[in-house]
Amino acid sequence: MTQYSAFNLELREGIAHVQINRPEKINAMNAAFWTEIRDIFIWIEETPEVRVVVLSAVGKHFSSGIDLMYLAQVGAQLGKEVGRNARTLKRKIEELQSSFNAVDECSKPVLAAIQGYCLGGAIDLISACDMRYSTIDAQFAIKEVDMGMAADVGTLQRLPHIIGDGMMRELAYTGRTVLGDEAHRIGLVNSTFIDQEELMGGVFNIARTIAEKSPIAVQGSKEMIRYMRDHSIADGLNYIATWNSVMLQSEDLRIAMTAHMSKKQPEFKD
Amino acid sequence: MTQYSAFNLELREGIAHVQINRPEKINAMNAAFWTEIRDIFIWIEETPEVRVVVLSAVGKHFSSGIDLMYLAQVGAQLGKEVGRNARTLKRKIEELQSSFNAVDECSKPVLAAIQGYCLGGAIDLISACDMRYSTIDAQFAIKEVDMGMAADVGTLQRLPHIIGDGMMRELAYTGRTVLGDEAHRIGLVNSTFIDQEELMGGVFNIARTIAEKSPIAVQGSKEMIRYMRDHSIADGLNYIATWNSVMLQSEDLRIAMTAHMSKKQPEFKD
Amino acid sequence: MTQYSAFNLELREGIAHVQINRPEKINAMNAAFWTEIRDIFIWIEETPEVRVVVLSAVGKHFSSGIDLMYLAQVGAQLGKEVGRNARTLKRKIEELQSSFNAVDECSKPVLAAIQGYCLGGAIDLISACDMRYSTIDAQFAIKEVDMGMAADVGTLQRLPHIIGDGMMRELAYTGRTVLGDEAHRIGLVNSTFIDQEELMGGVFNIARTIAEKSPIAVQGSKEMIRYMRDHSIADGLNYIATWNSVMLQSEDLRIAMTAHMSKKQPEFKD
Amino acid sequence: MTQYSAFNLELREGIAHVQINRPEKINAMNAAFWTEIRDIFIWIEETPEVRVVVLSAVGKHFSSGIDLMYLAQVGAQLGKEVGRNARTLKRKIEELQSSFNAVDECSKPVLAAIQGYCLGGAIDLISACDMRYSTIDAQFAIKEVDMGMAADVGTLQRLPHIIGDGMMRELAYTGRTVLGDEAHRIGLVNSTFIDQEELMGGVFNIARTIAEKSPIAVQGSKEMIRYMRDHSIADGLNYIATWNSVMLQSEDLRIAMTAHMSKKQPEFKD
Amino acid sequence: MTQYSAFNLELREGIAHVQINRPEKINAMNAAFWTEIRDIFIWIEETPEVRVVVLSAVGKHFSSGIDLMYLAQVGAQLGKEVGRNARTLKRKIEELQSSFNAVDECSKPVLAAIQGYCLGGAIDLISACDMRYSTIDAQFAIKEVDMGMAADVGTLQRLPHIIGDGMMRELAYTGRTVLGDEAHRIGLVNSTFIDQEELMGGVFNIARTIAEKSPIAVQGSKEMIRYMRDHSIADGLNYIATWNSVMLQSEDLRIAMTAHMSKKQPEFKD
Amino acid sequence: MTQYSAFNLELREGIAHVQINRPEKINAMNAAFWTEIRDIFIWIEETPEVRVVVLSAVGKHFSSGIDLMYLAQVGAQLGKEVGRNARTLKRKIEELQSSFNAVDECSKPVLAAIQGYCLGGAIDLISACDMRYSTIDAQFAIKEVDMGMAADVGTLQRLPHIIGDGMMRELAYTGRTVLGDEAHRIGLVNSTFIDQEELMGGVFNIARTIAEKSPIAVQGSKEMIRYMRDHSIADGLNYIATWNSVMLQSEDLRIAMTAHMSKKQPEFKD
């Protein structure tokens, strides 16, 4: 497996464990981070053995968001012509967005396990995951507002679907910190754990449960739920009907049925 | 009133009570179920005396979902040609979807009262209702994932609007059981009751309240809320303005006003 | 500053305080209310010094909704020709809608502070605000159903994004009263306060926090969150990329950075 | 085959010939017409032997549109209560729309062959067909405007996609007559023929060509083109990719290939 | 009637004649033009006697587009801060757009009569009209490209619906001149006339025809066709069904029927 | 410049000339074709000196579409499991689509110059270009129908926007050949030329005209026209307002103005 500078990557029993690994920099997102995460998710996409992904971080904190050094480098590329600067900036933003789109568009479920700080760009990142779990003392904040800018790599687009319109606005305008408990209450995380050890144990348990299911079923469900953020009920029903018109011809249905009848645990191919 | 094999049907004081009635089969959804529910909702649509619908189930459980015998029969119709099988399957899925679309598109409010198991296809069914109420020990699970398939009669399309994106994904991928209390907390049900008797009493109270309101007002509200799942704010405002440009000329407004002035209970025509 | 008959208006330290001021009529929305609120929000839009808006009400109650006298006046304009009546009514409804659209489309955040009754049209109004806060004994009800009509100035369009589809329908069909506590639990308000004094103190604290942030950041965030109610994730990402391709060239980013480095409070231009 | 009162119906060599047959009434659309056309297209949908449909009319004229006697009957059902009248009318219009939706949604191509008058409702009808062909002296007019109403069974929705926005408006507002030649120039018909005999010969030639093609290919193409009237390029590309992921596993592709190699005419199953 | 500096305005027999009147400046669009056209269309909207609008221009040319002096004035308002300049420019562009939106959104049909030059902003203007007619020697060109900018008051949004995607791009990228004949062939104008006198006669004939129709029918048709540029077939069918559920209760239908029976010219109220 | 096996590539005076170069195989699209075209358009995107692209083909014919050998190779990758085959096929189709998406999404205009055969996949390709020009004897046909499949790399999605709904369907169902003249009449090509030499001369003239314009203006126009295929008028107007709020601050506007005043040819930076 390729070595990465900003990440650890492991694959065991169908679960890819993607770990941000720059604890000495509070896991700030530097240039390597942005390209490596895209490469990792391309690899995940192309590796049938991966059934589910856990995204966590080494150290006391999940991530402090984008690395300010990296931001400064981007700024240094700008010249005097406003129009051409805009062209350059739009491409750079689209490039960063594409890194987190790779997480969102991953056909396998991605579970985020969060402890400590989860700030700015880290909120954009976890908004692109399927589910979020945290320690009770995790600290979430949409910090972009304090940098004089609107978040532009996905928070403002994906988070309203997760926590609703009213709380979304308060958090985006004030940048205030939300602790694990409140995060749970408003739906930002699905559940909380007492400490990091419990958190990792709990998240891996959920991941294992998913890894044992039919990948045809899990990935089809993910495709449909993602699709519904942007489409009408009628379009969604048509899509699943088209999709299942082939997938119900797959052998997974038969394997599941047989296992169900014989009260055994089914085993599905990747 | 027509007799049905999978349902009981009663109409009293403006409330149609639709009861799934195959308790010996845990109210599994067989061939009769799928055609009869469509017929029942056509009848509801065409019967002005029906102002509101309560959907419940006879016995210890609400429903275990689609009947596996029925599923096997569908499977038996498939041949060897993948393309034509797909055509057959797509039509069959659309046929099943249309049964629950009849619930969703019903112009009168539909209240689901749920006890015991509510699994697989039963989740698709209650997602198509307006509101859901349950006993505290009701058990909800998106069981399709354990049959090697993605749910295809509405759960993945309608439930995200009810419980939000984050919890939606966990339940769809893991198929885990949610009890009444958690169902209430995540918005899957609007409230819970201590047992089935309380449940039925409580749901019929709400139904009676609605049945006394102006049907012009209630049905107009339902049309608008349904419309908003799929349309922009601007489109929704235009739609209600067009709608009310005629409905405000209806006599219900005058009846309500007069009753309000004289502090009497208004009586509205069907 | 212009004098208004239905409102008090103040601007202090970047916060515009818009107060409904017809306490003797339970702040019912009369003809003056509907035109003045539009004028006030045009002024807010055109006044760069306004960074954030607090919308509250004088007296024991927030508002009882539309003034029935005003409704009667509108009714008096109708003739016998159904088609031309419809044309008249559609224009009138669109006119009322445009009053609350002015609140929704305001580029600066609007915080509603609610005590006592918040009924009918008042729910339409607070649904058009960014965030809602209330006393614990505030009483919310979608009263339109009791007037024989579907709400037509925004509740049915905007509220589902705030409280979810399931509870939305119950409140719209039954018109039942929700108290502060439940309002908090279902997301209708972001938090509750023990009494009106605490409420106003709490809301102004949040408003002050927002007023100190970069208006480029706050207003950009609002534009994006509003946009997401009606657009796809992909469209939203493209919009923020286009938007930030110019806004990241603004000086606010540099001011924020400099302040961050020197650990000082940044000061942004309007 | 069922007998119809307003239509002749024939099936020969994969081509269903649907002929409006009330020449003594200029093929005006009466009650029987509206229900029978729906029944006919349900039969077409369920009959795999039908590969393509020709829709023509007996006599000198294609159709004068809706039968005024029928319209009068509908009017007679209205009472005094404006709101409930509106409910009745909306259902009736939706019923008529559903008759032509059955044409539009038919999975097999429908070719209209038009001579003489094609007025009012007849324009709604041919707008729901795939292609239109006419004699050079055919006369087209959107006559609804002369009846004091906007066309409501599909002309205003489907025709802009066929003739463009500019000419659409002129024809809808003025109700002026377009002859075959101009109809060809503006894209309303695909080609014109010198007289009715040539027309029928020409249209059946095109129908035969289509009937010999793979139904998997033809019906897939129709599904995609219909879908594109309402969806984005990206959605359309995703849909065809999902669709073809199963259809390319069908045997038609292999049959076509083999025939291509051996320079023979391929034969496809229905 | 109000006097305008950039326009002549007349109302005769239901036809409002709006004439651009700055022939000495080739009818260039100055500050007065942009505000007056909005005022004129508000007046048209509120004046029931206006049934149809003819938009023409005094002198040898229709219009050379935006006045460069006006553009220079706008430029003079910009400062050094790129972000706040962008805010100013966005508002200014939206203000100009709203002037032509008033034409597009006008509930009555607007017919443009074009001679000589029709350049830049003038193309934006005629794209917002319902139909376009010209002399054979009229000259059309999307001149914005030669000013180093993309057209931003409507050409790029509305014209593709009129002339199709392929020709649209050629004209936008090259800025080349299209003469009357080609304009007719590609659908940019509905017909051409030999000279200005014939043009005005022909356009007023069409306008008179429309003015005699039922305004309920004409305005309903316009609303529906406008709606279809942006909505699905299903949404459009639902909208006309809702709309006509009231409009078919209007007396215009009865007046048209009676006139039809008695072979007289119907007379409709405004 | 990189060497390609299926293409020639040249850049002269701002015009990239992309030539399909497999004349001995009638320019059939083999594996190399599909990956190289994507690489070429990435290079075009990243090379500011390219202002406009001409896409043509070496030899007597433009292209016969996808290479059947390549298709056979894809088929050879399929196994027995229908569901996993579908997954493989969907990814392959998406990969091919992404090759032509690169043409469609290219920020610079792409002009296709077509002679001889333009069949099957070649129609998908030219549908993704901005404009099309051909010799009078060019032959266009949607050949996919004769291979037992629906076109799946863009024809069915993009061509309706170019030639309208009615003719689109005839060509897709029959696969019939359209010659240059008819192609011009229905809008498939913008103009025709007497032979290949004239064609190349004519297309390069248009390309040169575009290359001399401001790239800010041309690329902005393209972005807006592309956007309008999928978005509402209101969304389009908002997008251009946001876009131009920065682009009008670019120096191109000033350069164009100055040149206009001094009657000189402006010179724009890339």
From TrEMBL, chains A, B, C, D, E, F:
Keyword Protease: no
PROSITE patterns noted in UniProt: ENOYL_COA_HYDRATASE (PS00166)
Keywords: Fatty acid metabolism, Isomerase, Lipid metabolism
SUPFAM superfamilies registered for this protein in UniProt: ClpP/crotonase
Entry superkingdom: Bacteria
Keyword Ribonucleoprotein in record: no
Cited InterPro entries: ClpP/crotonase-like_dom_sf, Ech1-like, Enoyl-CoA_hyd/isom_CS, Enoyl-CoA_hydra/iso, Enoyl-CoA_hydra_C
Pfam families (UniProt xref): ECH_1
Functional pathway: Lipid metabolism; fatty acid beta-oxidation
Family under the similarity heading: Belongs to the enoyl-CoA hydratase/isomerase family.
PANTHER family: DELTA(3,5)-DELTA(2,4)-DIENOYL-COA ISOMERASE, MITOCHONDRIAL, ENOYL-COA HYDRATASE
Protein name as it appears in the record: Crotonase/enoyl-CoA hydratase family protein
